[in-house]
Every structure is written in C-alpha cells, then in structure tokens.
Amino acid sequence: MSYPGYPPQAGGYPNQPGGYPPQAEGYPAAGGYPPAAGGYPPAAGGYPPAAGGYPPAAGGYPPAAGGYPPAAGGYPPAAGGYPPAAGGFPPQAGGYPAPAGGYPAPAGGFPPQAGGYPQQPGAEGYPSMPPAGGGWGAAPGGYGAPGGAPQGYPSGPAPGQPMPNYPAAPGANPSMPAYGGGVPSDPQAPAIPRGFRGTIQDFPGADPLRDVEVLRKAMKGFGTDENAIIELLGNRSNKQRVPMVAAYKTTYGKDLIRDLKSELTGNFENLVLAMLMSPSHFDAYEMREAIKGAGTDEACLIEILSSRSNAEIIAINRIYKEEFGKSLEDAISSDTSGHFRRLMISLCQGNRDERETVDIAMAKQDAQKLYAAGENKVGTDESQFNAILCARSKPHLRAVFQEYQQMCGRDIEKSICREMSGNVESGMVAVVKCIKNTPGYFAERLHKAMQGAGTKDRTLIRIMVSRSEVDMLDIRQEYVRCYGKSLYNHISGDTSGDYKKLLLKLCGGND
Predict the structure, then answer these.
(1) What are the pLDDT digits (tens) for 181-199?
(2) Region labeled Disordered — which residues (predicted)?
(3) Domain count, the chain
C-alpha cells in the first residue's frame, strides 16, 4: 500500500487488492507459502506456513515460534525471535503496547490474523515494522539503524543501507512525527536562541476596543481608579497600548491623552503618557525636550543616539521633522558646539555599519589609528575617534577595543578620559560603554538617576519604558552584579505611590 507523504520506491509493496503483489525477488523453495495468485511464490528457508503471518523476504528474519504474542507493555522477547546485535536499535523502556485484537487494517492492507505479528501504528496510524529490542530508534532519514550502525538482523543489508522492501521515511515534520527513543536525527546540536529579554510581552487576546472601556470606566465619575490603569497598561506591550489612543477616540469621540492629563498628575502622568507613545515618537519627544529651552540635556542625546539602531534613528529623524518642523540635525547643530556637535551629528545620521562579521586585521589597524590619535601624540585628534566610533559596526568596535587594550595596556575608556574633557569626553565614553555592554550602560544610567539626593525621573521613565521590551532582564542582572542591590528594590525605595507601582510593572520582578 502507499503511504501519504512517502514517495514510492523500488522494492516496496505496491498497493494491490487482495494481499501481497508478486515481486521479482520471490521465494522459490519448498517450505514457504504455497503459490497463490497475486501472492508471493514459495521461498526456501522462509517461515513455515502460518495463517496470517508476514511473508518471508530473502535474507530476512529467522523463524520465531508463534510470532510475538500481544502483551501489555510491549513485545516480550520470544524464543527464536530477532537476535540482538551490537549497534542495533537502542532499547526503549516499555516499547509500544499491543492493543487487544491488533490494529484495524487499512484499506487493501494486512488484516490481523491469529498467529501473525500484531500490526503496529506508524505515523498517521499506518502499520510499520515491529520493533526490535523493545522499542524504535529514530535514525537519520527514516527507518534504519541509528547513525548507520549495523543492523541487528542476520543476513540483513549492509550497514548504512535501507531495509529492503520497506520505503524510507522522510525526515520528521509536524505532520509526520518521528519515533522517539533513539539517537537524534540531527547529529549537530541546534543553536540555542537567546530569546526575548524584555519584561513586557504581548497580552494574549488583547483588544484595544475592550481596553479603552476599562480606561473610560477608570476615569469616569468622581475620582480615578489608578489601579485599573496600572493593571491594564502594565500588562500590554507597546504595540497593544498605542492603538488605544485611536480606539478611545473612535469609541467615545474624546481624546485619551487629554482625558488622562485631566485625571492624573506628576510623574505617574508622565509615565502613563510615555507608555502610550510608539518608541520612535517617544525618542523624538525626549530629544526635543533635551534640546529646547535653556541648556541642553547632553546625556539624553548621547543615550538615545548611541544605543539605537540605524532604522530607529532614521525613524526618529522623520518623526522629529514631522512633529516639530525642523530636522533633528539642525536642532542639534544649533544647540551644541565643537567636537561634541560633530559627534552628535555623526550619530544622528543613522549610517553605522551593521554587519556582524569582524575583520581582525582591520580591527588592529583601527586600534593603531586610535592609539596614534590619542596616547601616542601631543594633543588629541578627536576626528579620528569620531570617524571610527560612529561608523564602524558594534562587533568590529568590540574587537578594536580588545586590540587597543593589548596594544597599549590601557582600556580605551581611560585613554579617552586622559585625552578629552567636557561633553565630548562624556559622549565618547558613553558610545564606548554602550557598544561594549549595552545593558551595563543602562544599569549605570539608572543607578545615577536614583543615587543621591533627588531622582532624575525623566531619565528613569525613559529607560524603564524604552528598554522594558528590549533587554530589561539583562539590565536587572547587570544592576545586581555592579551594585549588589536589585533594581526592583532600588526603585521601591526611591519612588512611591502609583508611580512606583507602574515602574515596578515595567521592571518585571525582583532579583
């Protein structure tokens, strides 16, 4: 019979009503089955005639007394059965239990009869070979000895060759499950995925139209149910939160942001509004706040531009121009100066090499250029640092930093601190730290925001919101490693009220 999904192969049993079709490799000797129309001719040395048994094959199995009797828990060893051989199928505890009465016969297949071998279900319920040694072993490419080991049957095929007259199974896929208990079908261990490292994930079955009903109910009437807002926003990913703004206006004809502003206050309000923006909108808004007014929050500019990908920086540029009517580059240029301005403008191009490959020879050259531009000359050539730190890929720069350390015996950060000062020093050091260890860089930023008198809440909110779906788990690990205290506990001790509750939702747990 044919099996769905299995290609027909020479030597298999073609589908023919009434039993086994004639084959070229017949069984021409006395002692086998009597010749019958459409069946197998008698073969020497085959099985003695028995009702319902499997027909013998040339070089096949030695006779077994009575076949395998069905027994709960698997096929017990029977006298005269398959002798074990080194390298055969590995034993599997229990094997496949034989149901009473055998398995139902497929159309045109092999009906169970007394004295025969009870049929065993294969993939999709089709009959397959009875197990040897108590269980099946999975082998590459189908049914055979695992790893090309010698077959455990006398006069069997050569090692590594498929069993005669049985079609080889395709590799396992969802519709054709493999048999367990044997060696892996893939000899190479699969790569372990790094996995999701954020703390906020998509909530199953979230619907913005139902979610805005919760927000409306929380704000309607006297007072505000802040806990309902915290539970809702703290359990929705950014792509599930952002559509709430449009859904609220669609449902109630009112502006969600305006209603929240009228109901909430302080840092809790700022945090809730930040969570309802897309990442690129939030970054553009933060950069606008860092640039406008008296003074510039250089650390905010450095943090965003040094940690975002090319695509994210390009999106920030686009949104900044749309929202504020001025390009981000012009805004930075008019609010900064000197080498720091050049560093920020270089970073805001979003044109860093993002290849993962590293050329060690080029890394050595770049390390030599940095050494020649700083430690090995009078004065400092900031332009050379700018060119390398802003254009090279992050994997390449990590190799450059290692080469630099080996070359001059000093860490690149310490060299920058010795050679530069002011904002350009802060900017260069931040770029190096972010490239070396991004979670460690953000852990340091969070610690500085909460350490000492007062809290830099804008920095705290920005990092907690922007990294909650990226690498917050890694930031928490770095925080404990560097400061001996969990981020969760530090936030708990440095903030209060509803603001603290929502921040701790973003943190995700204690370490």
Answers:
(1) 333 333 333 333 468 999 9
(2) 1-35, 140-171
(3) 4
